Amino acid sequence: MVSKARKQPTPKSAKIRTVTLNSGCRKTPKKPPSPSSILLISSLRKSLGSCKRCVLKLLSGVLRPSDFNHRGRGFHPHKIHFDPEPIKEIPVSSQNALLPPPNFPFKATIFLDLDETLVHSSLSPPPDIYDFVVNPSIDGHISTFYVKKRPGIDEFFEFIEGKFEVVIFTAGLKVYAEMVIDKIDKRGVISHRLYRDSCKEVNGKFIKDLSKTGRDIGRMVIIDDNPDCFSLQKENAIQVRQFVNDLWDTELSKLVKFLEVALGFNDIRQAIARYHSQQGERLNL
Known about the structure:
It is a single chain. The chain is α/β, with parallel strands linked by helices. It has a domain at about 110-120 and about 150-285: HAD superfamily/HAD-like (Rossmann fold, 3-Layer(aba) Sandwich), CATH 3.40.50. It contains six helices and twelve strands. The chain has helices at about 10-25, 35-60, 155-160, 175-185, 250-260, 270-285, and strands at about 110, 120, 130-135, 135-140, 140, 145-150, 165-170, 190-195, 200, 205, 220-225, 235-240. It has a five-stranded parallel sheet with strand order 8-7-1-11-12, with helices on one face. Strands 2-6-3 form a three-stranded antiparallel sheet, with helices on one face. A two-stranded antiparallel sheet has the order 4-5. Helix 3 packs parallel to helix 5 (about 250-260). Residues about 1-5, about 10-30 and about 55-90 have low confidence and may be disordered.
């Protein structure tokens, strides 16, 4: 006789658990949304869409498609490169300036002395070697000057042409100096000419005050053989040896090398200080 298996009664706690679990899965009927809710949802969707477009516009200026690696190697941020800040022109007062405003404000200005820096002139009798003659009228008398150009002057002018604003600043008389300048500047490299009447006379010495020229003091260099002439702005000066008749003179070729380096400086006074430092080191060797 086979006995029937007795069905065990379900524990009370299990019944409660079953009821509780099943009751959580019951679906309650949805109520239709009210018109005000529909308007609110529509407004939110429009706002989110507008924000999404703004974010995409911002990202499109910073990220590129190539920034995303499609082979699963991750995201690579685009590096933003900033161009160096351009040279800023330092405001300079042009009131009563010796020179008109520059055509190219960001070019450095070279102030060149004339006699014993670029040329050597002598009166009669004529020297053995000279390049040309000028005959200015000084105090009602015609004077004859025999002029010798410093070696390398043509190559020097060729190098500085277009790279710098070139100004002759001489303590010589205008009637004489303008004739000499016309002879040596066949290429039209020189932009302006300043003569003795632009100098400041102190104790019988003619001083060339660069602060009166209307140029940025950090973007100018004066080249002269006479230290008295640039005594007010020594940090802007390169002194050259006095030229008389040395046919083997190399001062202008040295200046070309200096100016090649100076082109890379925002403040040309730093290049001048470096030049003087190197010259001092050579003298001490």
